[in-house]
Structure of Aldehyde oxidase:
Amino acid sequence: MSGTSDGAAAVTATPAAGVQIPDEPPPHGLGVSLPSEDASAKTEGTFPYAADLWAEGLLWAAVLRSPHPRARILSIDTKHAVEMPGVRVIVTHEDVPGDAAHGRGTADRPVFAKDEVRHHGEPIAAVAADHPDTARLAAAAIAVEYEVQEAVTDPQLAFEAEPLHPDGNLIRHIPLRFGDADAVGEVMVEGLYRIGRQDPAPIGAEAGLAVPRPDGGVEIYTASTDPHTDRDLAAASFGLAPEQVKVVVTGVPGATADREDPGVSLALGLLALRTGCPVKLAATREESFLTHAHRHPTLLRYRHHADADGTLVKVEAQILMDAGAYADTSADALAAAVSFSCGPYVVPHAVVDGWAVRTNNPPSGHVRGEGAMQVCAAYEGQMDKLAARLGMEPDEIRLRNVMATGDLLPTGQTVTCPAPVAELLHAVKEAPLPELPKDAPEAEWLLPGGPEGAGEPGAVRRGVGYGLGMVHMLGAEGTDEVSTATVKVSGSVATVICAAVETGSGFSTLARQIVQETLGVEEVHVAPVDTDQPPAGPACHGRHTWVSGGAVERAAKMVRTQLLQPLAHKFGMSTELLQINDGKITSYDGVLSTTVAEALDGKELWATAQCRPHPSEPLDESGQGDAFVGLAFCAIRCVADVDIELGTIRVVEMTVAQDVGRVLNPRQLRARIEAGVTQGLGAALMENLRTARGQVRHPDLTGYALPTALDAPDIRIVKLVEERDVVAPFGAKPASAVPVVTSPAAVASAVRAATGRPIGRLPIRPQAAVAQVGQS
């Protein structure tokens, strides 16, 4: 989401000449670094999260999960567990009164496993007890007899393996054909790329509270990022009407993905309905790793054809995405991967096949930049190979082929939005390079591996690499994007009611800025989100900046008209001749001057509005179609130091230029970009949820490495291109996903430059960064 964020990455950012921030900004409105309303509560530790909730007569829940990635369930015996003191009820698949399966994209995931388990950690039963320890002990006491089966963990074998699900193993195949399939170039390079399983690793593990209602329904309090979808899934599983289930969004402790495993809410709701008591669950970090969606591990085979001068002729690619046990949003991720498989480059001919398949690995789903990140790492690797083959500089071959407005995607869609890719690449290329570290003992910490590293300074090589990335805005392939918002004004206070969840993307701050700008009311509050409000859709792909922000703006403008019409009629002029600034209403000729509060005269004004962007369309049988509403672009130059003997890597600096449309909140925009770059850095160098035959190894924050402040490099934002997209409200574009997509490719490019190695796997292993024998 462009220009909005409520949290910053632990990085430093050097001021950039290309970013204009006013010396004396107005006190509020768009374009100002308005702080988040809940910033103080979050920093002081008083902000209420789902894990902090409490209710009178509270029971505690625990979930029994499968220790096997694949097994038949022969029997489930709850007798001894239910007889334990303090245990109130145990539910299994037999106790699900409604739909037994759920899923965000495809309803193929059981609430509780029935005849078989398909991944490590799949829920089998849930317990409600009067103490959390009692609940956990009772869950462990449930006796399940398994017949363990050989897990299918290699997605390449899923095509020939026996079906792991009644719907089969193939979720989707997209055969994209663009131009002449027989075209060839004078030069051809090929490569094999593997992208690991990145976990969203939210700050807080999943938690929630379910409270039964007198009408036989239930209220669920949880950190949902798409409450209306979660409500509908829950109602279907409980056998209730949607209006009998209410989802109340509590504080979301960070979201770089769907955030919640919906199964947590389903288990809680069933237990609350069965016991008639409030039931709370706070997942352990291990449970969190096992159950929520991860980034799709992906295998990519590429072949690039080019002329002798470096002009691209054709791209051939095969993309295989591991969806894990269930479909979730894998079909959408595959569409993004196939559509962006050639990158922000002009490619006249393309032959691309993409598959998403089921395996017995952990579930995959929506994670920021899904699909686009995996292919970016591959096509940028190919551009480096092509440059090396032709004896060209990596930036030179990229500039020769970059996309611009009016060019075609390989899906046949014309790029109608601003696409300043060349401008972005020029900006990072021309930025000064960081200085080399001094060869002194006090500077040893600057070397790869730090002061305790065993390497020698003479073995360190510096590499400079580039990455160009792109993402789509809003949903794709015909998704009906719509959001509804209500704006109320009473006295000197305005309230925004919109079911757009604040996930750290900064929507609540943006909504306040929009109302301040439109109505001149400084005190603006955003109401808490629940499903009694009209739906606003999921918090992903920059939706809430565009769709929900657009709805807030339209509602605020309707209130503005209500406010100004009586004054305009009284003075015999149109409302267009009146303006609102800093809480004052004035006419163009200075005859009228009054305050907003005086104009309201004790009345309450309100309006409700919707925003629905122009529609997209599904890809056809050849992968063709106008599948995307808009696109955003980014260029990153990475400078990395590599110990070519030990393979240790230190990223020194990431230089960023980004296409943002319009800067809505400068400080929060920087925070979003910095956080996105850092998340991408984790995917490039350390984040990989490892499995052994489908069994998750070390599902904790000790075994799963995340970048810290010591790992984060200097992040220099040298240019923000504010070329507004005319079809988007405010002209703004998403800010956080595209640096996540681009930074892993840039890091890999820098390591290639330093070592001469191909670097086809992310995260980069130390042995892959050891230079070839004889390289200086």
